[in-house]
Amino acid sequence: MPGPRRLFRNLKLDVAAGQLVAIIGESGVGKSTLLNILAGLDDADEGSVSVDGAVLGALDETARTRLRRERIGFVFQAFHVLPYLTLGQNVALPLALVSPDAAAAATRAEAMLDAVGLAGRADDYARDLSGGELQRVAIARALVHRPALILADEPTGNLDPETAARVLALFADAVRAGGAAGVMVTHSDASAAVADRVLTLGTNGLVERGGR
Questions:
Q1: Are 138 and 81 in contact (CB under 8 A)?
Q2: How far does CA 40 lie from the centroid of its chain?
Q3: Which of 94, 99, 101, 87 is CA-nearest to residue 147?
Q4: Cβ pair 206, 197 in contact under 8 A
Q5: Angle, to 10 degrees, between the axis of helix 131-143 and the axis of helix 102-115?
Q6: Residue 195 burial (CB < 10 Å; 0-12/13-18/19+)?
Q7: Which pLDDT tens digit goes with each residue over 24-35?
Q8: Which partner for 15 in 47, 57, 88, 181 could form a disulfide, CB atoms 3.0-4.6 Å apart?
Q9: Series of mean pLDDT values for 10-residue runs along the chain (212 residues)
Q10: All structural domains of the chain
Q11: Number of alpha carbons in the 13 Å side-chain half-sphere of residue 202
Q12: What pLDDT score was predicted for residue 170?
């Protein structure tokens, strides 16, 4: 059986608040692994990750979980929107994990749905939505708790090109307006074009390709 494979080394990444960085690379290069390391789900063999001043390697698992709930948002390729909850309930989930104030959570969720173009639809059910609408809900949910860091893993991989372009523009605008540090991994140059910076991931780390 082959031994462990080194994905990358000499990797350095700083992302400012309100900045969206796209990391591009072929399948298997380690893009999703890098996101897991940034989120504290996986540990790097060496080096450190700091999110909003907290060094992940210095935290125990309970503290890491708390930090992910409070300071990190995720947008997944497969949406992970719960079909038998309303849109408001889906978006409010991150708030429910950190605060008992259900009324405030509902109000905040409605504001986020408005921000992603789904105003007045908090009581609709996710099972009735199109792919583009589901991804809008996923973006609203990722941003509702005002995270310091938002991570997106191929966020438009399941969408047609026209819908993907609209969702990407919405995602980029939401990251900037919310003041989050955004990191999106993708294999698509078209997706990466919305970012402020574009980096290529390879075995020797990240190489700047230029952005907007």
A1: yes
A2: 14
A3: 94
A4: no
A5: 130
A6: buried
A7: 988 888 888 899
A8: 181
A9: 70 93 88 90 88 90 90 86 93 88 93 90 92 90 91 85 85 88 91 93 84 48
A10: 20-83+131-208 (3.40.50.300)
A11: 6
A12: 85
Closest CA to 97 of 132, 120, 130, 72: 72
Write the single-letter amino acid at 123: D
Six-digit token string for 205:
């780390």
**Overall pTM surpassing 0.90 (yes/no):** no
List of residues 6+ apart from 35 with CB closer than 8 A: 151, 153, 183, 185
What does the block give as tokens for 159?
């969408």
CA 1 to chain centre: 34
Beta strand ranges found along 9-162 (DSSP E):
20-24, 50-51, 54-55, 72-76, 149-153
Contact (Cβ atoms closer than 8 angstroms) between residue 88 and residue 95: no
Instruction: Provide the residue count of the chain.
Output: 212
- Encoding tokens for residue 121? 């639809």
